[in-house]
Amino acid sequence: MTAIVPQFGIAENRTQFVHQLVQVLLVGFAIGMTRTVVPALAESEFGLERGSFVLLSAFVIAFGVVKGVLNFVAGRLSERIGRKKVLVLGWLVALPIPFMIAFAPDWNWIVAATVLLGINQGLCWSMAQTSKLDLTRPNQRGVVIGLNEFAGYVGVALAGIITGYAATLIGPREGLLAFGLIVVGFGLALSALFVRDTLPWAHSEAKSAAAAPLSTWEVFTLMSWRDRRLAAISQAGLVEKFVDALVWVIYPVFLFSRGLSLPEIGWVVGIYGVVWGGSQLVTGPLSDKVGRHWPNVSGMWICGAGVAMMVLGEGFIWWSLSAAVSGLGMALLYPNLSAAVADIAAPIWRGSAIGIYRFWRDLGYAIGAFGFALAANLSGQIEVAFWFVAVAMLASGIVLLIWGEETRPH
């Protein structure tokens, strides 16, 4: 029998592409369920001492370290055992998370649950993105990652809003338990039953590209310092996660202290996620036409400006507008940093390159959360956390402007 030659393109692989979009939507739901209720009620529900910004950030620091490492592992592992097995493993790890949050006696349980969440996100989100890149053509990478991040971060935003209302209606622990079990159950069942492994597509593309394989260390050094273009992208990815960590940890506490209800906090944080996710339907395809470099640089600066705006005004409308500005900046940079990595990396080591980029990027959760929490602790003012992140985004954008270059395939 003649082996089936994989076809490349979104239309040619429509069914599997949709399955992978559903996967990343559910992965977004999984992380989004911790975005509103957990930090806002850290003191009243989980016994965290008031003003303990570093302890409050501990769960995001743990998440960032674990997810970063698992991104690294997932990329290399998927090149050996296949994308699907890694995806299913990620959902199996997530099974205890809803129970740990629902029955947590103290904040340590939340940190432990977030460690498992980091493993889940590192394995599942990496595989959903890598699989879609396997299936599609080089001139569709902006579209692919735009759709991927749209699905994921709309999931994050909707989960924050839904769990905010659920906590108000049936209680915070009960709401998180019900929502979490539904999300993890669907993710595991759909990945096991309907998702196909896309590693054969990557192997087929690698044969036509005729690129030599690289060791893990070789790819790591390329991504981290040897290739200036990839190093510029990696540092930008790391710093932009400062913003998402701030939204996750500080925004709910800041807004709750200003008198907003849990549903209102869910909407402000949700607007950030919806604008971020929805705009990527435009910014991803746009980069396939105009390039990646300037959307990435301008996105860093616009996103940082939105962070600074949060502390320059008052009221639900102003905070929602500020969140939307940050979301727009993230939409410009987020899919296009990943697309630039895929542009440069050869198919045979693309999974590793994406995993290492995501290692550096998601390590930004830990570094950013520790940095802005320490700044807030030392100053005694929560507003300092916002300025720490805004300045970091400005500086990182300058580095990306100088070291980076255009990578879009012609």
Structure description:
The chain is mainly alpha-helical and 410 residues long. It has helices at residues 14-32, 37-40, 53-81, 83-94, 97-102, 107-135, 141-170, 172-193, 199-209, 216-226, 228-257, 262-290, 293-309, 316-344, 350-379, 383-403. Helix 4 runs antiparallel to helix 6, helix 11 packs antiparallel against helix 14 (316-344) and helix 13 runs antiparallel to helix 14. The radius of gyration is 20 Å and the shape is globular. The mean pLDDT is 91.
Explain the layout of strands and helices.
Elements: H1 14-32, H2 37-40, H3 53-81, H4 83-94, H5 97-102, H6 107-135, H7 141-170, H8 172-193, H9 199-209, H10 216-226, H11 228-257, H12 262-290, H13 293-309, H14 316-344, H15 350-379, H16 383-403
First and last CA, distance: 37 Å
Major sheet, described briefly?
Answer: none
What is the percent of helical residues?
over 70%
Put simply, the count of helices is 16
Mean of residue pLDDT values: 91
Number of strands: 0
Briefly note the structural class of the backbone: mainly alpha
Strand content: under 5%
Unreliable runs, pLDDT <50, ≥5 residues? none
Order of helices and strands: HHHHHHHHHHHHHHHH
Spatial shape: globular
Radius of gyration in whole Å, from Cα?
Answer: 20 Å
